[in-house]
Amino acid sequence: MGSGVMTYHPLAETYDTGEAYFTSLGLLGGSTGMVPVFTNNTTFASTPDAYGDNLTFAITDSVLKVTRADTDWTNYTWNLGATYDKVLGVAYFHGGNASPRGMRMGFDQNTYSGSQVTEAYTTDSYAFGCYNYGGNEYYMGTRYSTASGYLLLGTDTSIYNAMEETDFVFGMATYLEDNVQKGFLKFGSTSQWFQVLSTADGDLTAGWQSFKLSGGFQSASVFRQITPFYVWGAV
Amino acid sequence: METGTFQKKGAGTQQDPIQPDFESAPGGPLGYTPVMWESVGGETATTMTVRYQTQ
């Protein structure tokens, strides 16, 4: 595995959705009411429903290649097809070929279609991810509020991955319900999922309708999302 | 881990997000930025209550 390009193949074959782990936490199964919404296991079913400007996508089996022709955040979404009061998403990323600003995932309370060029599309989400703005490197939970702007709900500066093309594939997961957001990571095909942040905030209001993924780079970039890509939800 | 209420700071942009100002604790500045912190609710227009890792 001397090449970063090669590292995503084994993960794509493990089908590691984390379902057993999240069930053990009580987030799936039992009386949660959570049912599969997206089950992209060995292949991606479709390209995103909506996307920021200057983006192109290419699916090759387990890999969604995302290319952005200019600088800044690469955002794309799949609509969930319903409004959910609880959601859990699991996705794997392979870093980009330009200096990264961050990679994150989350849920929006809107649906989107086609090209989206508004600032709100970039920021209007309940996100969990990795950032390195201002030289700081941390994971965090965030959300956007029209009234207050971009708000951090938590950070952890003790954990970070560089998100470069030569770095490993890593898994991220985020769970949302009313007043609760949790963020999880998985580094490498044999590691376990682990919780990074768990926030309780009165401004986290249920009603999620789309799943958003984002990569931010300081110049034109290519990065990849790798299966499995799963979303569960409860209405 | 301890829990405290802090004033908010930040412009609300991605580069300068709103977050707790750990120099504004009621008992005086913490004197450090916690390695890890997370919101525990009770947010107001001007303050956030967070659980944070002590130094």
Explained architecture:
The complex is a heterodimer of chains A (235) and B (55). Chain A has 235 residues and is mainly beta. Chain A has one domain: Jelly Rolls. Chain A contains three helices and 16 strands. In chain A, the strands form two sheets. In chain A, strands 1, 3, 4, 6, 12, 13, 14 and 16 form an eight-stranded antiparallel β-sheet that branches. Chain A has an eight-stranded mixed β-sheet with strand order 8-2-5-15-7-9-10-11. The N and C termini of chain A lie far apart (42 Å). Residues 1-14 of chain A have low confidence and may be disordered. Chain B has 55 residues and is mostly beta strands. Chain B is 0% helix and 36% strand. Chain B is built from no helices and four strands. Chain B has strands at residues 2-9, 19-20, 36-39, 47-52. Chain B has a four-stranded antiparallel β-sheet, with no helix packed on it. Chain B starts with a strand and ends with a strand. The A-B interface holds A 122-123, 133-134, 141-142, 148-158, 179, 197-203 and B 10-15, 17-19, 35-43, 45, 50. Strand 11 (149-156) of chain A pairs antiparallel with strand 3 of chain B.
What topology emerges from the helices and strands here?
The complex is a heterodimer of chains A (235) and B (55).
Chain A: H1 8-14, H2 19-24, E1 35-40, E2 50-51, E3 55-60, E4 63-68, E5 72-84, E6 86-94, E7 100-108, E8 114-115, H3 119-123, E9 126-131, E10 138-145, E11 149-156, E12 170-177, E13 180-187, E14 194-200, E15 208-217, E16 221-234
Chain B: E1 2-9, E2 19-20, E3 36-39, E4 47-52
Antiparallel strand pairs in B: 1-2, 1-4, 3-4
List keywords for this structure.
heterodimer, A: 235 residues, mainly beta, Jelly Rolls, 8% helix, 52% strand, disordered N terminus, B: 55 residues, 0% helix, globular
The low-confidence parts of chain B are: none
Helix content of chain A: under 10%
Instruction: Report the radius of gyration of chain B as a whole number of Å.
Output: 11 Å
CATH-derived architecture of chain A? Sandwich
For the record, give the distance between the C-alpha atoms at the N and C termini of chain A, rounded to a whole number.
42 Å
Total beta-strand segments of chain A: 16
